[in-house]
């Protein structure tokens, strides 16, 4: 069994040794910087995006929970007689629909989407800490896929040239309601929450019923018994972040620290 590496600090340098063999040497400042970047931290000097209720940063990744308050708006929804389920041939109609609190959970890496993106409902605002339960939505473009309970399709936002992750977060919020709702997820991911949740309340059993209920009472979505998702914003956000940047080990060893040193990838194969 190979011996565990040994770290030695002398002055401003760190050396990784295994027996008499020197694996690598790096500035102590570089190790300390990487240790600091691996930990979760609050934002240093960011202008937070609108609706940001929870934020975790780890290395170059940022996980954020965005909350959109209850509201009613006109959206583009796939027409019942659309000749195609999505794409250029699809036909849409404008619908005036009411929404409860909408919670968007997204992980960014250097101002880029990572594929870790979910959408949930709530009938009350998120509390501090994000440990209150989320509710399942009733939307097209949201599906159970890619190890995520309510994965949100952001396909047409991938090319967005954001200068920072807060700017991209704002774009995500706008895109969710500005893009067309269609059956793309049902075709590609095999399911959507629009099909799965239509029986939750007769007021959202069809788009026509949803629109009629909204015109009668724009706040009715807050009284719907949406199905519990069995998870919380905090749990989902941390799980998503873990898939983008591995969390620091609970009981780090010298080998873990060696792996954080500059050039570690080249040194691991050495005896």
Q: Tally the helices.
A: 8
- Overall domain count: 2
Q: Can you summarize the main beta sheet?
A: 5 strands, antiparallel
Radius of gyration (CA) equals: 23 Å
Secondary-structure element order, N to C? EEEHEEEEEEEEEEHHHHEHHH
Beta-strand portion reads 25-35%
Mean pLDDT: 86
Enumerate the strands of the largest sheet in spatial order, edge to edge or round the barrel.
4-5-6-9-10
Describe the structure.
The chain has 271 residues and is of the alpha+beta class. The chain folds into 2 domains: 1-39 and 248-271, no CATH class; 42-246, no CATH class. It contains 8 helices and 14 strands. The protein has helices spanning 28-38, 165-178, 184-188, 193-196, 207-216, 233-244, 254-260, 264-267; strands at residues 6-10, 13-18, 21-27, 40-41, 52-58, 61-68, 71-78, 92-99, 101-109, 113-122, 133-135, 142-145, 148-152, 228-232. A 5-stranded antiparallel beta sheet has the order 4-5-6-9-10, sandwiched between helices. It has a 3-stranded antiparallel beta sheet with strand order 1-2-3. A two-stranded antiparallel sheet has the order 7-8. Mean pLDDT is 86; it is low at 265-271.
Task: Write the SSE topology.
Elements lengths: L5 E5 L2 E6 L2 E7 H11 L1 E2 L10 E7 L2 E8 L2 E8 L13 E8 L1 E9 L3 E10 L10 E3 L6 E4 L2 E5 L12 H14 L5 H5 L4 H4 L10 H10 L11 E5 H12 L9 H7 L3 H4 L4
Antiparallel strand pairs: 1-2, 2-3, 4-5, 5-6, 6-9, 7-8, 9-10, 11-14, 12-13
């Amino acid at each position: 069994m190979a011996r565990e590496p040994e770290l030695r600090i002398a002055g401003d340098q760190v050396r990784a040794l295994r027996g008499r063999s020197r694996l690598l040497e790096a500035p102590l400042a570089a190790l300390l910087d990487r240790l600091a970047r691996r930990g979760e931290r609050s934002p240093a000097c960011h202008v937070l995006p609108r609706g940001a209720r929870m934020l975790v940063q780890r290395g170059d990744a940022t996980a954020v929970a965005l909350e959109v308050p209850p509201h009613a708006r006109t959206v583009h929804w796939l027409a019942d007689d659309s000749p195609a389920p999505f794409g250029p041939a699809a036909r849409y109609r404008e619908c005036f629909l009411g929404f409860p609190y909408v919670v968007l959970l997204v992980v960014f890496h250097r101002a880029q989407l990572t594929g870790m993106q979910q959408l949930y409902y709530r009938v009350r605002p998120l509390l501090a800490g994000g440990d209150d339960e989320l509710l399942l939505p009733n939307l097209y473009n949201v599906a159970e896929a890619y190890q995520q309970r309510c994965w949100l399709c952001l396909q047409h936002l991938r090319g967005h040239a954001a200068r920072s992750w807060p700017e991209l977060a704002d774009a995500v919020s706008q895109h969710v309601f500005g893009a067309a709702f269609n059956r793309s997820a049902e075709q590609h991911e095999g399911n959507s929450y629009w099909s799965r949740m239509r029986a939750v309340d007769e007021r959202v059993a069809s788009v026509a019923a949803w629109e009629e209920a909204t015109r009668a009472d724009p706040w009715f979505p807050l009284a719907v018994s949406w199905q519990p998702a069995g998870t919380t914003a905090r749990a989902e956000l941390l799980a998503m972040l873990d898939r983008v940047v591995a969390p620091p080990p609970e009981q780090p060893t010298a080998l873990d620290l060696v792996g954080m040193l500059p050039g570690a990838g080249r040194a691991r194969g050495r005896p």
